[in-house]
Fold this protein.
Amino acid sequence: MTLQFKVPSMKCEGCADAVTEAIQSLDAGAKVEIDVDSKAVSAETSASEGAVREAIAAKGHTMA
């Protein structure tokens, strides 16, 4: 399943790495694409959207 969302709190590549790690901690095979400028995240993952939201929040980021 592909999830697409915005993470307004992402400001740099370090933030993008943290978001990627959060998603891949749930699904090691997840394919994550992030555009820091537009704050867009696309993740092809087997993890549920709710679990992804919780993992990203645990890294200190907010999702729109």
DSSP finds two helices and three strands in the chain. The radius of gyration is 10 Å.
